[in-house]
Design brief:
mainly alpha; about 180 residues; elongated
């Protein structure tokens, strides 16, 4: 029996074996650039130049893929808080580093947009925010600032700064806030 196409023909599809990690990385890229609607099997397969079969090989369905994305982010975000608690340095350096990290993580804003329409993402985000508030309060306690509203204001600033389309670097604005906090202590 003669084959219609040689076995090596890929019809423009990638021959690279994709791992769940590659799908997750591509998912965050898609979320950042195109929003949550891009996190379906077909657009993701197109993005990775492969078939939907590859997607379903790694994930039972789109819902399972979404859960894997959220679990991945959640684990990294919580591990970041723990590692910061265990690291050496001054409280002001920790506060600046923490804020800069959040401001530089492009997936943060995209995940918050997604959380507006997905309860699972919102619950994960709320849990991470709770841990971040605890960490911020820990830092502020070292400055003698015990009012939890300060921690909330700092986290709200980190959430909102990327949404302001100002010509200046949001890290500079955050640093100005940290300078103000230091002046209060």
């Amino acid at each position: 029996m003669r084959r219609a196409f040689p076995p090596s023909t890929s019809f423009g599809m990638s021959n690279t074996r994709l791992s769940p990690e590659k799908w997750i990385t591509a998912g965050f890229d898609a979320l950042i650039s195109d929003g949550p609607a891009a996190l379906a099997a077909e657009p993701m397969a197109r993005r990775l130049n492969t078939t939907k079969g590859s997607f379903y090989w790694h994930f039972k369905d789109v819902r399972a893929y979404h859960a894997a994305l959220v679990r991945h982010w959640h684990g990294i975000a919580l591990a970041d808080v723990v590692s910061r608690l265990e690291s050496d340095g001054t409280p002001d350096a920790h506060l600046r580093s923490f804020g800069h990290h959040i401001l530089e993580t492009k997936s943060e804003a995209a995940l918050r947009v997604w959380a507006q329409t997905d309860a699972t993402v919102a619950a994960s985000m709320a849990e991470v925010d709770t841990e971040r508030l605890t960490y911020l309060q820990h830092l502020l306690n070292q400055f003698g600032l015990r009012n939890p509203a300060f921690a909330q204001a700092i986290l709200a600033t980190l959430i909102g700064l990327p949404e302001i389309k100002a010509p200046s670097d949001p890290r500079a604005a955050f640093d100005a806030l940290v300078d103000t906090i230091l002046a209060l202590s």
